[in-house]
Design goal:
- By secondary structure, the protein is an alpha/beta fold.
- A five-stranded mixed sheet has the order 3-2-1-4-5, with helices on both faces.
- It is elongated.
- The two termini are 39 Å apart.
Length: 306
């Protein structure tokens, strides 16, 4: 009985130590998600104005630009998947990976070859384990991405969309990331970045009430302006997606660690109750042995007196 009590006490100490770790991780994730939310909000005005500028150029001229013109028969598509470098975030990474696999299956069903670009060690590990080809991977910054990181990710994608498909380029660029909806809800979504759908871009860049989009003269030409604006547009969209994914990951980690902390607390209560029962049983057994021994001694003494 004493051995069983020692087992319970050892498990209680182990679970208590785990609870302290998960509680600390929950608090760290909670502080990080607030910072990530602020970055998402701060990046929105720039992305909005850049979108309006792209819309003005694309709709205000007759220029046929490779980044705004649909290919007649698209054959190759790039898919950028955003995951995290670390786990302990519930289904955050698996949901994004599943969304990318659904998109890949859809594009392949349309007869397109899919070229994969991965952000985050979890996504890279998933593809490497299944021996799937990765065009390029990016790791080490998913918890706190910067605009420089977005530019690094965007560079090979822009180069691929500007290159002819028979020379290794792509006709389309898609992105899969996790959108931060609230502290309790994060949704894995996919979006096509290039070629731009002017109707969707115009809707995103719609002016506020009472605003009118200004008319522009393009110098030196609309095509040169598009050459300068569209890479910035792609970078800003990828940067926003990285920030959304970072905020979603921290929120998922916070939720997962809170659940782990609560479960540890419940397990400690259960183990404590079992330890108390074992201790009571041990005390009862000791009392019974003492009483039995005293009774046997009394019987032996009474027999000798006779």
């Amino acid at each position: 009985m004493g051995a069983q009590l020692r087992v319970y006490k050892r498990r209680i100490r182990s679970v208590t130590a785990t609870k302290k770790i998960t509680k600390a991780m929950e608090m760290i994730a909670a502080s990080r998600v607030v910072k990530a939310q602020r970055k998402v909000a701060a990046s929105t005005p720039y992305a909005t104005e850049l979108t309006r500028a792209v819309t003005a150029v694309a709709t205000g001229s007759n220029t046929k630009h490779p980044l705004t013109t649909e290919a007649e028969n698209p054959t190759r598509a790039a898919v950028l998947l955003l995951t995290s470098d670390r786990g302990l975030a519930g289904a955050f990474n698996s949901n994004a990976i599943k969304a990318a696999e659904r998109l890949t299956a859809k594009l392949e069903a349309e007869g397109k070859e899919v070229i994969s670009y991965i952000v985050g060690r979890r996504g890279v590990a998933h593809y490497n384990f299944r021996e799937r080809k990765i065009a390029e991977s990016f790791t080490g910054f998913t918890d706190d991405p910067s605009y420089a990181d977005a530019k690094k990710v965007a560079a090979p994608l822009i180069e691929a969309i500007e290159t002819e498909t028979d020379e290794g380029g792509v006709d389309e660029l898609h992105i899969v990331y996790t959108e931060f909806v609230s502290m309790m809800t994060q949704t894995a979504i996919e979006a096509r970045l290039l070629p731009l759908s002017l109707d969707e871009v115009a809707e995103e860049a719609k002016p506020g009430k009472g605003e009118i989009l200004p008319l522009f003269d393009f110098e030196p030409s609309a095509e040169d302006v598009l050459d300068a604006l569209l890479p910035r547009y792609v970078e800003s969209r990828i940067y926003n997606a990285l920030l959304q994914s970072a905020a979603s990951k921290h929120a998922a980690t916070r939720r997962a660690m809170k659940s782990a902390t609560d479960n540890a607390g419940e397990l400690i209560e259960t183990l404590t109750r079992l330890a108390n029962q074992a201790r009571q049983a041990e005390i009862t057994q000791e009392i019974s042995e003492i009483v039995g021994g005293a009774s046997a001694l009394a019987d032996a003494t009474a027999g000798s007196d006779r």
